[in-house]
Amino acid sequence: MPEAAFSFHGRVVVQFNIHRNGRISDVVVAQPSNIDAFNRAAYNAILGSNPTEPLPPEYPDESAFFTVTFYYNESPGN
After folding, report:
1. Tell me: the pLDDT tens digits for 34-74?
2. Which one of 5, 47, 57, 74 is most buried, by most CB atoms within 10 A?
3. Domain range holding 41?
4. Percentage helix, strand, coil for the chain under 3-state DSSP, each rounded to 5
């Protein structure tokens, strides 16, 4: 992240699926920030987690849909 980005703020909402084996797919920036570096960082954070932990054996479906909000230099609820 560029040093100048620490003075900016924003949030990015990313949506994706986690499959039973932990594979992440269908990653989408659903609500981008006005700062492209934030969007890329959030998107790449999810991709960099692929694969993640598998779904619990008792989970009833083959995949789970997630929505994650990344906050940059602001707190949730602002």
Report:
1. 999 899 999 999 999 999 999 999 999 999 999 999 998 88
2. 5
3. 7-72
4. 20, 35, 40
Residue length, the chain?
78
Q: How many domains does the chain have?
A: 1
Q: Indicate whether 2 belongs to any domain.
A: no
Taking the whole predicted model, whether its pTM rises above 0.85 is answered as yes
Residue 50 counted as domain residue: yes
Kindly provide the b/e burial profile for residues 8-41, where b requires at least 16 CB atoms within 10 angstroms of the residue's own CB.
bebbbebebbbbeeeebeebebeebbeeeebbeb
Q: How far apart are CA 33 and CA 12, in angstroms?
A: 5
The rounded distance, in Å, linking the Cα atoms of 23 and 69 is: 20
Identify the residue whose tokens are 């991709």: 47
Closest CA to 8 of 38, 44, 42, 46: 38
